[in-house]
DNA sequence: AAAAAAG
């Protein structure tokens, strides 16, 4: 039997907003959780992102908030999120589903000015969505009274634990009324998290949806052996992007923030439409880049694990792991950015020497082997062909005939040739002139390291960008 | 070993 949103006991305003957003059937977690939340029960929700978890608390909260009004500096509900982007995303959910309500929703995150946040607090916020640091900052400045909070949501609890937020959470809980409703969400339930639920929750209902430790079948996963140096890795990444089939947009994950910056810049300099996202960037750029990527005006997002979990980015066709994630769980989260909602996706992981040891942990966790990919022959990997100038490899000919260093991987040989059909949107046609104009800016950004390998393509004799990448229509 | 989050 299938349930409809209209049968869950949500108020009319919410149900209408949900219908207006185009949804009729709740997801598993929504169908299970919403009735309990409406009954004001405490709840433990074990669910990953992508399961519709956010709406499972946003919708019933909207219904419950219809009774009563907020007073200045006394929020009625509080939602804690581990990252600023996730907090912003929950905020968007409140805007979308709360459009028939007149509620004040305040987003308290770091990296942006206090001014707007103060205004919202003074007006009286019905809903506070916050990252712990900024929320406590407001509290210590006396802008905030937490004694009126009826509902507390702790989202992504296991990640909060990873990030060392638990002391903050404990502190915040001690500031809240003991009589309150607490909704607790976590993708996993390790013992420490289990203990927390005993401390923070009262007689909770437990709701669990299928754990996706085994990665979705809709994701084609591949491993690729690459060289040790960052330059070799970047070259391999470019080759993979160029050769990728049906690439619409992609996320490239790096383990380190400085690599995120370097890789993004490198891709840009090679003419790709790429942008960076990591936690050391100013919030404005973070938001801007993410918005552009979501809107489809940015083709390649290079990101740290800040983007690995939770972010709702629909329909990413490719995920590239520039580094092997050292925590196997992160692999699952990263590649889970593609192949969502039944769509197919491709996840390619670059394996430098010394990174193989992490691969074992991953295959063990996901309980399957991952196939080895073939390195496409391309101008940026020096081969006998490279000197022959500007032939477009779009025809697929010559590829793989003489790939070097593949002998130890017979599996790679029988992998079908990947044809580069459509290139990611190119930002610009690299012309020597433009490249020269770009140079000073890049020197400013990274004065000490001029990577020769990353010199603009048009400066290099062998690093020629194939025509098919510049003109998707191809040529005669 | 790294990322994230307060400034």
Automatic annotation (TrEMBL):
A motif (Q motif) lies at residues 3-31. Residues 236-383 form the Helicase C-terminal domain. It is an enzyme of class 3 (hydrolase). Its EC number is 3.6.4.-. Residues 405-416, 424-452 have a biased composition (Basic and acidic residues). CDD domains: DEADc (cd00268), SF2_C_DEAD (cd18787). Residues 3-31 form the DEAD-box RNA helicase Q domain. Pfam families: DEAD, Helicase_C. The keyword ATP-binding applies. SMART domains: DEXDc, HELICc. Transmembrane segments: none annotated. Residues 373-476 are annotated as: Disordered. GO terms for molecular function: helicase activity; hydrolase activity. InterPro entries: DEAD/DEAH_box_helicase_dom, DEAD/DEAH_RhlB, DEAD_box_RNA_helicase, Helicase_ATP-bd, Helicase_C-like, P-loop_NTPase, RNA-helicase_DEAD-box_CS, RNA_helicase_DEAD_Q_motif. Residues 34-207 form the Helicase ATP-binding domain. Residues 373-387 have a biased composition (Low complexity). Keywords: ATP-binding, Helicase, Hydrolase, Nucleotide-binding. It comes from the Bacteria. Belongs to the DEAD box helicase family. This is DEAD/DEAH box helicase.
